[in-house]
Structures are given as structure tokens and as C-alpha cells.
């Protein structure tokens, strides 16, 4: 079993990578590079999945009676993961809006 600090840092790093990748994806979508945006969002999804796996491992251990010590670092890690997960939902929607705007500017209908 890894200590709580190592686990926390893994979650923070993966969630931070995901957020950075999503911001890059949004930047790419803003200039119409939807292929790059999609690729970055896929990478971000993998990063979030990695952080979530680490979190699930902790939850599984606790369900088996192996309690973790309280750690403000873990609270911080959970905050990073939840923010990344929320950002993923919002940034996906924003990229879709950029797609629609690109279509409209090419004569398509916005619906």
C-alpha cells in the first residue's frame, strides 16, 4: 500500500495534466483546429481516468477496512480531480459551440 502523500500526488498530477490538456483543446477549438482539440480531449480523458483509478483504489481499500489517515493533501487532490471532471463536461460543450459557430460561419444553420 502506498502512503497517502504518494497517492495524493498521483491524483494531483493526473488531474493537473488533464486540465492543462483540456485548456489546450479549448484553445485549438477557438482557432478551428478541431482535430487537435479532439486529440487533446482524448488525452485529457485518459489522464482523468488515471486519477480516478487511483482514487478508486483508495475507496476500495477503505471498503475493505483499510482506513487512510486524514490528509489535507488528499483533500487538495480530490479537489483537483473534481475540478478536472467538471471542466471536462464544460469544455466539451464549449468545443461543440465552437464547432457550431464554425459551421454557421460557413453558411450552415445554428441548431
Automatic annotation (TrEMBL):
Keyword line: Magnesium, Metal-binding, Phosphotransferase system, Sugar transport, Transferase, Transport
Binding site for Mg(2+): 79
Keyword Magnesium assigned: yes
SUPFAM superfamilies for the chain: Enzyme IIa from lactose specific PTS, IIa-lac
Sites of Phosphohistidine modification: 76
One Pfam entry name: PTS_IIA
Molecular function (Gene Ontology), one example: metal ion binding
Single Gene Ontology BP annotation: phosphoenolpyruvate-dependent sugar phosphotransferase system
Cofactor entry: Mg(2+)
Residues annotated as the enzyme's active site: 76 (tele-phosphohistidine intermediate)
Cofactor binding, per record: Binds 1 Mg(2+) ion per trimer.
Name this polypeptide is given: PTS system, cellobiose-specific IIA component
Natural source organism: Tepidanaerobacter syntrophicus
